[in-house]
Amino acid sequence: MASSVVLPLFSPTVSPPPSSIPLPRRWKIPTVRATVSSQPLVAAAPDDLVASILSKVKGTDGGIALSNDGHKEVSNVADQLAGYCVDEPVKSPLIFGEWDVVYCSRPTSPGGGYRSVIGRLIFKTSEMVQALEAPDIVRNKVTFSILGVLNGEVSLKGKLIVLDSKWVQVIFEPPVLKVGPLEFPYGLQSEVKLQITYIDEKIRLGVGSKGSLFVFLRRG
Question: Could you list the residue ranges forming a coiled coil in this record (predicted)?
Answer without folding.
Answer: none
